[in-house]
Amino acid sequence: MWDAEISITESGDEARAEARLRGKEGGQMVGQGTARRNPADENVPAIGDELAAARALSDLSHQLLQRAAHDIEVHTAKPVERLHP
């Protein structure tokens, strides 16, 4: 079983998100994401939180794909050409 957790902090016009994925073997991966509000835009903090969280999850997703590609290469002794959709 894997556990995922997203934490968000806000400071002024910036939202920062951290997405953590903990695996069954005790290891973890961390993705980072930020969002900044344009001063000309309406102040809606929830939108910044959503963008920062999406970016953190995207970062985590890329890391997980890289790890999977590495593990495949280690087990098959062949290079992985493409894992991205």
UniProtKB/TrEMBL annotation:
Descriptive protein name: DUF1876 domain-containing protein
UniProt region (Disordered), positions on chain: 23-42
Organism: Streptomyces natalensis ATCC 27448
InterPro entries for this protein: Rv2632c-like (IPR015057), Rv2632c-like_sf (IPR038070)
Pfam families named in the record: Rv2632c-like (PF08962)
